[in-house]
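Researcher: Please translate sequence to structure tokens.
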Amino acid sequence: MSTDFSRRRLLVAGAGVAIAGAAAGQASAAPGARSSGPSLLGIREETRSLEELYQAAVAEGGQLVLYQGGDVDSQAAGVRTAWAAAFPEVDLTVVVDYSKYHDVRVDNQLATGTLVPDVVQLQTLQDFTRWKRQGKLLPYKPAGFSEVHQGFKDPDGAWTALMVIAFSFMYDTQAAGANAPRTPADLVDARWKNAMASAYPHDDDAVLYLYSLYQRTYGWDWVAQFAAQQPQFARGTHTPSAAVTGKQKTVGVGGAGSAVATSGPLKWVLPDRAPFMAWGQRAAILKQAAHPAAAKLYMNWQLSEARQKAAFNGWSVREDITPNASLKPVWDFPNAHVDGFPEFMADRAGIERLKQTFALYFGEVKGDPSPGWPGLHPGR
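Model: Translation complete:
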């Protein structure tokens, strides 16, 4: 193992302390208390340093497999590079796929005794509450857990959000000029006909929630008018920004971005009052994980002060960290609907009805999934 501890400590500075093993500290449930899997209220935050956790991960075998929700493999490039620099003796395998495929993939692997990932980091928020109820998750509280916003963590440590993701619309500042759209209501203006790209709302639940907020605010007439604009739909939430930055379209709808980005022609819109949507991307260690020590290292690293301060969009899941002083925490934006998205995701029957309704307006989803077809056991 490398002895250049000062370099790694610089990379992960501010991570503080981490928690001592998930097995220690389970508390017995009070008589008559509602049961939701094991009683975990006595689990304390990790007290080991990142260096100590790193040594434990190396001793375990130096392997970690992460199933990450996303659109294309290149979205994991940043985490791969940063991890390799900080922990060169622990090999990280990241498999990127739509969360709606990763979750059922994990279910199938658990059912067949062929589990591959150690950590799941997904947009399908409802799966984490279900997996907790089924006893599939390893209860664990990384260092900094107590500072995580209440809505972004399970109180028993079954899962923790590691990053904030927000969806809105965006535009090319050069092409849009002084007439750039300011709110979703502006998107149905005639000047944007044939000038917009969008992810399919009926292919991605977060985009679906964004469109549902637009519909609730402006009505189904707005949806019909938007459809008449003949937007270019594609699979993958990266496609709107790709179409705008590639100068194919002027406006993109249904993708992530940063309200504090200052370079480039792409403007991601953070509305003053109009709706957008944001959530905490949840992550958890699977109870049957082959590499629990490495999984704990990953959770602590992502929640560390250094990683949270480096959030590309200026938002942290921790209440004690402000990545960008000009931006208030995402939960302080009522129009971000951070509490609404988990409730939305839990209503699977309602989501299916809404998907089919948007298909009536926008047509069926077409095209192969942007991550490709990883199959049953990617990362093995």
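Researcher: Any highlights?
Model: The CA atoms of residues 77 and 94 lie 9 Å apart.
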